[in-house]
């Protein structure tokens, strides 16, 4: 039984079948839609082939744009033999009787369960009665935002994270005036450090997106619909549409009192098993022991969901010894025509080194712990990143990573290409 | 065993190269390319991993069922 019919859930179903599971596989999804791929929702999905997002599609309401599905319905149902139940919400879990509780009071028994209900967009803390406030997590969110962008001149995005940055890029590229409002002084500094955050910010400003850092949104005003966004520095931004991109919260409310231990997500052991017998977790909500450091880790990455779904499924059905989940995290983001790739976990409390020139849109930031490389962030370096992935996986010496990166990305004008900076966060 | 890389889907994430540097390499064009075609049969397991883990589902094993 798999709860959550997105990437982790679908990969779990497939892996279970490929690993030889011949019994029933029930895949339960709260949304009515077939499992779909999320990354395009903040990028190409928001735009129409013409100049403006969602431009003038008269039949768009009757025939809303379709997303890329993760697997065709007949492949899922017939080839993999998955009992796919969509539009079904899990409301609770009885780990003693091993039953899943559904919104219609039905109780479904399971032998093995994989929790893959993902995360939900973090809500704006104050309510507004004005229309025009958007989130972006689900297909329905994306359709609503797409329709709104077709009528938008001024877009305000709250939060300079990956979602906000991707939507800003898409909007700016389609002639919408986009402004990102970020409370931190440097976008993404908590995730990638000051050096990389500063370099990434330049991608926005170079492309014509306005970036306002170190300020907060204090209020919205307008008549029926948001027309202005008020900031803590006293300034007022005109806005037709506001996107809130302030992170995501694990969807674990339905597990309260279930006996499954929670810890900002679902607490897992290194095998992705939860505290309840026969119950595993995968995807955005799975918190597991860090394979290389103290503490625990929860990843909201596409590749993590794909890997964890498959990993949890194999461990759930195996009769042999389970295997530990010890990933090297990988996340990517596409802004304007730039591809940003991050491998490993950046130690933002350690020195990071920038190689290349952010002004050219081609650079790499390397992260170290003591004398070995732990992570890399690369912008428009397709050849470098695969090689860095290997070095990071092997915990290679720092000097090797530096040499490799410098070779693949020689400074445009010697010797100004390299800057080192240290920051405690 | 034949691997097909769909150039319309591949966007050069390099997950395949990370798994099997002797088989795949991302080029300056930002696309994965095969270094050995066909690849040796004893690399089948890692190639199947690459097919499974490709973020854009751009890889396909020709003699495997569609995935």
From TrEMBL, chain B:
Key word Metal-binding present: yes
The signal sequence is none
Arranged from A to Z, the UniProt key words for this protein are: 3Fe-4S, Electron transport, Iron, Iron-sulfur, Metal-binding, Transport
- What GO molecular functions are on record for this protein? 3 iron, 4 sulfur cluster binding; metal ion binding
Needed cofactors, names only, are:
[3Fe-4S] cluster
Instruction: Show the Pfam families listed in the entry.
Output: Fer4_15
Q: Which InterPro entries is this protein grouped with?
A: Fe-S_cluster_ET (IPR051269)
Q: What is this protein called?
A: Ferredoxin
């Amino acid at each position: 039984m798999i709860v959550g019919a997105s990437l982790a859930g679908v990969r779990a179903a497939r892996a279970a079948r490929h690993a030889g599971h011949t019994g029933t596989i029930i895949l339960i999804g709260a949304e009515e839609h077939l499992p779909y791929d999320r990354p395009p929702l903040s990028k190409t999905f928001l735009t129409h082939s013409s100049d403006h997002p969602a431009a003038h599609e008269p039949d768009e309401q009757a025939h809303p744009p379709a997303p890329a599905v993760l697997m065709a319905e007949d492949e899922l149902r017939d080839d993999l033999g998955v009992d796919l139940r969509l539009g079904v919400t899990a409301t609770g879990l009885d780990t003693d009787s091993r039953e899943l509780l559904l919104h219609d009071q039905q109780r479904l028994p399971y032998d093995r369960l994989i929790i893959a209900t993902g995360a939900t967009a973090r809500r704006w803390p104050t309510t507004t009665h004005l229309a025009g406030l958007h989130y972006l997590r689900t297909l329905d969110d994306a359709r609503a935002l797409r329709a709104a962008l077709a009528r938008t001149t001024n877009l305000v995005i709250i939060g300079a994270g990956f979602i906000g940055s991707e939507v800003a890029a898409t909007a700016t590229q389609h002639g919408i005036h986009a402004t990102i409002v970020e409370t931190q002084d440097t976008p993404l500094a908590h995730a990638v450090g000051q050096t990389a955050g500063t370099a990434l910010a330049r991608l926005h400003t170079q492309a014509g997106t306005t970036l306002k850092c170190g300020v907060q949104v204090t209020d919205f005003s307008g008549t029926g619909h948001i027309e202005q966004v008020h900031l803590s520095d006293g300034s007022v931004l005109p806005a037709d549409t506001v996107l809130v991109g302030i992170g995501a919260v694990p969807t674990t409310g339905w597990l309260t009192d279930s006996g499954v231990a929670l810890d900002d997500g679902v607490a897992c052991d290194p095998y992705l098993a939860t505290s309840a017998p026969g119950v595993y977790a995968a995807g955005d909500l799975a918190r597991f022991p860090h394979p290389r450091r103290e503490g625990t880790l929860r990843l909201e990455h596409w590749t993590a969901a794909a890997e964890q779904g498959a990993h949890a499924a194999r461990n759930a059905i195996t009769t042999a010894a389970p295997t530990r989940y010890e990933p090297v995290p990988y996340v990517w983001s596409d802004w304007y025509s730039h591809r940003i790739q991050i491998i490993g976990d950046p130690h933002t409390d350690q020195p990071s080194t920038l190689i290349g020139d952010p002004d050219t849109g081609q650079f790499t930031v390397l992260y170290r712990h003591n004398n070995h490389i732990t992570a890399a962030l690369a912008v428009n370096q397709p050849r470098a990143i695969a090689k860095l992935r290997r070095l990071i996986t092997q915990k290679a010496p720092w000097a090797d990573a530096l040499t490799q990166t410098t070779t693949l990305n020689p400074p445009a004008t010697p010797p100004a290409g390299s800057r080192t900076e240290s920051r405690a966060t | 065993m034949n691997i097909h890389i769909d150039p319309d889907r591949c966007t050069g994430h390099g997950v395949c190269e990370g798994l099997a540097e002797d088989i795949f390499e991302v080029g300056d064009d930002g696309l994965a390319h095969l270094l050995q075609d066909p690849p040796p049969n004893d690399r089948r397991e890692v190639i199947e991993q690459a097919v499974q883990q490709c973020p854009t589902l751009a890889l396909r094993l020709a003699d495997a069922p569609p995935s």
